[in-house]
Structure formats: structure tokens, C-alpha cells
Recover the amino acids of this structure.
């Protein structure tokens, strides 16, 4: 085994966070417009930022969960590699003894 062979996902998470931020800003603008509330571009950005801020913990918890999964996978791989080496050594010793 050569370790956990899966690309790091933080760049993907960062990309999706950026996309969500833009989507939330657009959603906030569209929602306000649907109630005939016109706001300036600056106010629209602030509304989107506030909405995103309220949800940002979700993204960070996702990132933390991702890190925890990678850490646990690494620990399991190390343990399996050690077990594999022990079993190989045992088989080798048995072959020599026979």
C-alpha cells in the first residue's frame, strides 16, 4: 500500500464555498426584488455576506469532517501496512521452517 490515494478536497471545498457565496448574494438580491425592495450593489453584497456568514459554519464543519476522515484513513492504512508486513514475515518464516 502506498497511502490514501485520493486527491485533497480542500480546493474543491473552497471552490464550492465561493460558488455558494455568489449564489447566496444572488438569492438575497432576487428575494428582495421579489418584494419590490430595490437595493444598491453595495447593499446587495452586504446582504449576501450576512446570509453567507450565517451559514459559513456549515462549510467549515464540512472541511473539518473531511480532514478527520483523511486523518482516520491514514491511521487505518498505516495499521494495515504494519499488519501486512507482519503477515508477510510470518509467511516467510513458515516457508523457511518447512
Amino acid at each position: 500500500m502506498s497511502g490514501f490515494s485520493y486527491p485533497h478536497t480542500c480546493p474543491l471545498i473552497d471552490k464550492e464555498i465561493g460558488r455558494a457565496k455568489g449564489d447566496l448574494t444572488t438569492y438575497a438580491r432576487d428575494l428582495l426584488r421579489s418584494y419590490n425592495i430595490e437595493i444598491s450593489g453595495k447593499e446587495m453584497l452586504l446582504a449576501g455576506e450576512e446570509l453567507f456568514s450565517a451559514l459559513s459554519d456549515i462549510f467549515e464543519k464540512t472541511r473539518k469532517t473531511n480532514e478527520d476522515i483523511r486523518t482516520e484513513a491514514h491511521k487505518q492504512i498505516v495499521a494495515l501496512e504494519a499488519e501486512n508486513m507482519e503477515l508477510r514475515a510470518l509467511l516467510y518464516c513458515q516457508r523457511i521452517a518447512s
Observations:
- The longest helix spans residues 41-97.
